[in-house]
Amino acid sequence: MKTKTKLIIGTVTAATLIALAALAQNAGQFSVRTSHAVVIKTVPTAGATDVDPNLKEITVTFSKDMMDRSWSIPQTTPGENFPEDSPTGAKIHYLADKRTCVFPVKLQPGRTYVIWFNHGQFMNFKDTAGKYSWPYELVFETKQ
Question: Which of 55, 73, 129, 137 has the highest CB neighbour count under 10 A?
Answer without folding.
Answer: 73
